[in-house]
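Input sequence (734 aa), recorded before submission:
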Amino acid sequence: MVSIFRKILGGGDSNERVVKDMGPLIAQINSLEPALQALDDAALGAKTAEFRARLAAGESLDDLLPEAFAVAREAIQRTMGQRPYDVQMIGAITLHRGEIAEMKTGEGKTLVSIIAIYLNALDGEGVHAVTVNDYLARRDAQWYTPALDLLGITVGVIQNQGAYRYTTDTVSEQSTFEHLVPVSRAEAYEADVTYGTNNEFGFDYLRDNMATTLAGRVQRSRHYAVVDEADSILIDEARTPLIISGPAQDDTSLYPRFAKIVPLLQEGVHYNVEQRHRAVTLTEEGVEVLEKSLGISNIYSLENFRLTRYMEAALKAQVLYQRDHDYVVKDGEVIIVDAFTGRLMEGRRWSDGLHQAVEAKEGVRIQQETVTYATITIQNYFRLYDKLSGMTGTAVTEAEELDKIYKLDVTVIPPNRPVVREDFPDYVYRSQNGKWKAVVEDIAERNAEGRPVLVGTVAIETSEMLSSLLKRRGIDHEVLNAKQHQREAQIVARAGERGAVTIATNMAGRGTDIKLGEGVADIGGLHVIGTERHESRRIDNQLRGRAGRQGDPGSTRFYVSFEDEIMKRFAPDWLPGLMTRMGMDDETPLESKMVTKAIEQAQQRVESYNFDTRKHVVEYDDVMNTHRDVIYAERDKVLRGESMRETVTEMLEQEVAELASLYLGPDGDIEAFRAGIDALVDLQPDELPVESIGNPDEAQDAAIEIVDQRYLALEEMAGEETQRLVERLVILRT
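Predicted structure, token format:
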């Protein structure tokens, strides 16, 4: 398959090629504008019923596209005071075609989605608008729904702690719930369009397939999804499967014991760390210390082998997982920090005892381990949709993965205005100490000029460390990380003001738009500083994209040291020695195309490694997916009321056959066979007497006849309706 992305970049100017390909369609949409402007709101809204009637008469969504897009544009103009640009219409066409639209920051990606959503909502099968967190789901639903509401399109919102339908009335004093009326989850899904996160959609799918009645299900079919921040959801989140679990019977008392042993061990003596793969392994000396501490002679013996998982978890918790980097401790709980967004992942837990080991390390209450009831990967969940599309500011670097895993092409949408942001080369330092001094100086210089500065950090601990450095210099600033997430909108709203300094983890890179304050464009715009290269070039590009939105001026620079995590794990071995050979000290930066290229190659190695990880996750789940599809299809038949009598009698007869195979052989146990049948149907004393059991086949046939007759008698006594209900419950719980 030759993707549109490859065609665009195959030669010539990409913007001209995109516009040329879709130009006639855009012209057709634009030609309808004057007639629609002449309609009143009621007549414009009536277009939806007209379109639906034409669909019912045999026209396709593609046939309706020019008119429907023109109607959506007019509705947006009337309700929001914004007329979508032609390039935004190109983005909407891309989404309707089931592709990924890459659009620069500030180009109105979410506005673009409304146009494609309107067209695809016309067939009445439901559209899922997927975003990265509950806040954005609520915000987007309320910001953009007035246009859909004018056209008679209903909108629902699902959240971790509730579900809502949009109303034009003001029903709450909270701005993020102002127009949201609480409803059941099923009612939210019955809307033409439903906003929510990938986790909520995925978990509802799993819960629906655990339901024991049709009324217990909430989702409709998975018809069409528009995924905002598609690279984050479809790629970054795809390393972690969605799991519904319950408490397991496991001994949590062992975790504190191992948490006390680990500090006795020394790296390089008792264990070795492999940074590249984030792995830690015990040496022979380490095993000896462990066995001595536990008072056992051989931890790998059959009776002690289960203890190795506790030790492995304790080692990882102590060595690889750091507080305020990988997790935070909040209200006596260990909460994971999303490495890609910097947000707290409430309700998520590491598996294989790791979370319990971290809890033991931090001295908080150790929660019970869990057993999995249902699971699906992000990849296999989104493959369930009839049509899938998405939008993001950065997808080109992952075009291959999006194609291979999801069969999605990437189309680069030209900006409405050219990007004039200046991206300075990286400054590379020998040590982190030199790097941080330079970062503070850069902030101070830009702040003295009055320019707003956004500083991106990779972890909570580094954002707080930089904050303390700025306090010493007397530079006023705001810190935005997972600990201050409630103030995110407030902090971001001021980040483009004159003299503002904002330190942020990756949180500020998604779903937020930093607008320049008055006069800021005249002094150079927003200056973005990256304090470390991320594992993915996309995250770096997201940070860069905070500056220079919609043709605004701006600048960016990344500061890197050889002590940074990604450099230690993936940079070539010759790099650190280069500066030493050049006689450079800690505070002198290296500015070299060769070094920049080496850093990018290191990132590409990380991306390749992570791609392989995600590929293995989905390959493993593909095997389970085959079984999951069969089981869920059978459950669906049961819930829809199909008679299960034949299935149940087959199950009973199979049980009789297994008893016969087990007890009616040459050296069989006839009494055990009869006891097994008795356990199934409660035999009467004169039924299937032991002395009458001779030929195994005849005995099996006789037992089956008794079981079938007893089942029919039970149905006559209970009634057919009750029997069918019992059958469904038995099968659903088997």
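Checked by second reader. The two ends are 43 Å apart (CA to CA).
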